Structure formats: structure tokens, C-alpha cells
Amino acid sequence: MPPKNAARKQPAAARAVMRGGRAFLAARGVHRGLAALWVMGAAAFLLLVMTVLGDHGVFRIRQMNRDRADLQARVANMEAETVALRRRLDDHRAGRVSNELVARERLGLVRPGEVVYDFRPDPLR
């Protein structure tokens, strides 16, 4: 049988083992709780990093929203150009624009007897 002073010099966990082990299990539970807290903290940190930097993270979503806005602007410009081209096509089909006017603008043709004045800047100056 150990002397009475020997039990007091031992750490609390060792004394608890001598008393039946209840405090020892509680002490181990504290360590398990601390380990679980560390695991949950690490998982939360990993989740935060993935939320910000992952493929579906905040930065990627913001970049995709900017790309979507650029594409919507391009689509709007193309739709406006399509409407203008359809109007020109309808005008040509309806005969509102004469073939003569098209030949004058695109090919630079003139009627006999007309005088053409060319106001282009002088390339030598």
C-alpha cells in the first residue's frame, strides 16, 4: 500500500485512475473535444478557402457575371445590326432604293455628261 503523501504528489489524472477512472475518462473527453474542435476548425477553414478560391467560388462567380454582361452587350449590338440589315434588305426588295443609287455609291459610276468632283485630301501634304 502506497503512503498517503505519494497520492498527493501524483498528477490529478493518475489520482483519478486510482479512484475508479471517472475523472480520467472526463480528462480524455476534454482532449477528444479539443481534437474535434480542431477538426471542425480545419474543415471550416477549408470550406472558406474553397468558397472564395474554388471553381465555383466568389471570385469565379464575379468573373462569370462580368463575362455575361460583356456577352449580353455583344448580343444587343448584333441584334441591332441584324435589324438594320433586315431593313436594308426589305428596302432593296421593295424597290425603295434604286439600283442606280447602289451602283453610284459602291462602284463610283456616273451618267454620261455628269461632272464628278473629288474632295479627297492631298496625300503629298
Question: What's the count of strands?
Answer: 0
End-to-end separation in angstroms reads 119 Å
Q: How many alpha or pi helices?
A: 5
Question: Radius of gyration in whole Å, from Cα?
Answer: 43 Å
From the spread of the alpha carbons, the general shape counts as rod-shaped
Strand content: under 5%
Low-confidence stretches: none
Average pLDDT, all residues = 78
Largest sheet: none
Q: How much helical structure, as a percent, in the residues?
A: over 70%
* Order of helix and strand elements from N to C terminus: HHHHH
Number of domains: 2
Q: What structural class do the secondary elements suggest? A: mainly alpha
Describe the structure.
With 125 residues, the protein is mainly α. The protein has 2 domains: 1-53; 55-109. The chain is 73% helix and 0% strand. It is built from 5 helices and no strands. It has helices at 4-9, 12-18, 22-53, 58-94, 99-107. The longest helix has 37 residues, at 58-94. The protein starts with a helix and ends in an 18-residue tail after the last helix. The relative contact order is 0.03. The mean pLDDT is 78.
